[in-house]
Amino acid sequence: MANRAPAADSLASESDPQRVGETLRTIRELRGVTPLRMAQALGISRSYVYNLESGRKPLTYVLLARAAAFLDVPQISIMRPESAAPDGAEQ
């Protein structure tokens, strides 16, 4: 599967890629998922997962949808974790 991430398909302009990557890593780790398992589930390489999590590669809409489904979280929880406060509490 190709690992290209065209700018038109990227969420980079909508949020900070490094923060999004850190959030993705945190959720992955909380779920007990290894980078290799995440890569397999998303159809990308393990190094691409590391690049996403470090903010060096943009998270595309397709990868966001796949990651959210795999990690069983709403997409907004990855993009804007402050919007998804626990127990419905506002932050």
Which terms would index this structure?
mainly alpha; 434 Repressor (Amino-terminal Domain); 5 helices; Lambda_DNA-bd_dom_sf; Helix-turn-helix domain-containing protein; Cro/C1-type_HTH
Write the layout of secondary structure elements.
Elements: H1 17-30, H2 35-42, H3 46-54, H4 61-71, H5 75-79
InterPro entries: Cro/C1-type_HTH, Lambda_DNA-bd_dom_sf
Protein name: Helix-turn-helix domain-containing protein
Region (Disordered): 1-21
Overview of this protein structure:
It is a single chain. With 91 residues, this protein is mostly helical. The chain has one domain (11-78): Orthogonal Bundle (434 Repressor (Amino-terminal Domain)), CATH 1.10.260.40. The chain is built from five helices and no strands. The chain has helices at 17-30, 35-42, 46-54, 61-71, 75-79. Helix 1 packs across helix 3 (46-54) and helix 2 crosses helix 3. The radius of gyration is 12 Å and the shape is globular. Mean pLDDT is 83; it is low at 4-8 and 85-91.
Write a compact overview of the structure shown.
It is built from 5 helices and no strands. It is mainly alpha-helical.
CATH topology: 434 Repressor (Amino-terminal Domain)
Number of helices: 5
User: What average pLDDT do the residues reach?
Assistant: 83
Largest sheet: none
Structural class category: mainly alpha
Order of SSEs, N→C? HHHHH
Cα distance spanning the termini: 39 Å
Domain HTH cro/C1-type: 24-78
InterPro entries: Cro/C1-type_HTH, Lambda_DNA-bd_dom_sf
Protein name: Helix-turn-helix domain-containing protein
Organism: Nocardia rhizosphaerae
